[in-house]
């Protein structure tokens, strides 16, 4: 993943303090983010106003990968939990990295699959551990 640190074009290094917002639910998704140091919490709010924590991401994690899906919007809000160093990569820059560096593409896909499995596990746990009153 440290290959990303050598990319100059399309890369935007950012510093955040605790409580800052990296991006908000509903915004246009124009960049993917890589956490060099720190923690970020992803939350979502339903149309009825119910808030849910989707994940807590830390050093060496990606977030905001929905930007790679064309004209997409953020499905969550990313809140900084502790002082953090993050860098953003524009969609085109990230696509170029994935094209030019197969090793990086492999690590990125693994990261996405790990996230998907964890989300499925949490969903199953929630579904099967709810108590239903009849």
| Topology pattern, helix = H, strand = E | EEEEEEHH
Number of helices: 2
Query: What characterizes the major β-sheet?
Result: 6 strands, antiparallel
Tertiary shape: globular
How much β-strand is present in the residues?
Answer: 35-45%
User: Into how many domains do the coordinates divide?
Assistant: 1
Low-confidence stretches: none
Helix proportion: 25-40%
Based on the structure given, which CATH architecture is correct? Answer: Sandwich
Main structural class: alpha+beta
Please state the average pLDDT score. Answer: 87
- At the first level of CATH, what is the class? Mainly Beta
Oligomer: single chain
As a whole number of angstroms, the C-alpha radius of gyration is 16 Å
What's the CATH H-level homologous superfamily?
Jelly Rolls
- By DSSP, the count of extended strands is 6
CATH fold name:
Jelly Rolls
Distance between the termini: 50 Å
A few lines on this structure:
With 134 residues, the chain is of the alpha+beta class. Helix content is 28%, strand content 35%.
Q: Could you give the topology of this structure?
A:
Elements (H helix, E strand, L loop, with lengths): L10 E6 L4 E3 L7 E15 L5 E7 L4 E2 L13 E14 H10 L1 H28 L5
Antiparallel strand pairs: 1-6, 2-6, 3-4, 3-5, 3-6
Describe the 3D structure:
There is one protein chain. The model has no long low-confidence stretch (mean pLDDT 87). It is built from 2 helices and 6 strands, in the order ββββββαα. Helices cover 28% and strands 35% of the residues. The chain has one domain: Jelly Rolls, CATH 2.60.120. By secondary structure, it is of the alpha+beta class. Strand 3 and strand 4 form a beta hairpin. The longest helix is centred in the last third of the chain and has 28 residues, at 102-129. The chain has helices at 91-100, 102-129, and strands spanning 11-16, 21-23, 31-45, 51-57, 62-63, 77-90. Strands 1, 2, 3, 4, 5 and 6 form a 6-stranded antiparallel beta sheet that branches. Helix 1 packs across helix 2. It starts with 10 loop residues before the first strand and ends in a 5-residue tail after the last helix.
């Amino acid at each position: 993943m440290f290959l990303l640190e050598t990319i100059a074009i399309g890369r935007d290094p950012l510093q955040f303090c605790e409580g800052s917002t990296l991006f908000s639910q509903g915004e246009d998704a124009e960049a993917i983010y890589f956490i060099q140091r720190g923690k970020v919490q992803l939350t979502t709010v339903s149309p009825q106003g119910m808030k849910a924590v989707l994940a807590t991401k830390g050093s060496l994690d990606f977030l905001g990968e929905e930007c790679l899906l064309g004209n997409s919007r953020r499905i969550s809000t990313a809140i900084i939990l502790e002082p953090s160093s993050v860098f953003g990569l524009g969609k085109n820059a990230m696509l170029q990295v994935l094209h030019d560096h197969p090793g990086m593409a492999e690590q990125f896909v693994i990261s996405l699959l790990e996230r998907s499995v964890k989300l499925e596990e949490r969903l199953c746990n929630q579904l099967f551990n709810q108590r239903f009153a009849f």
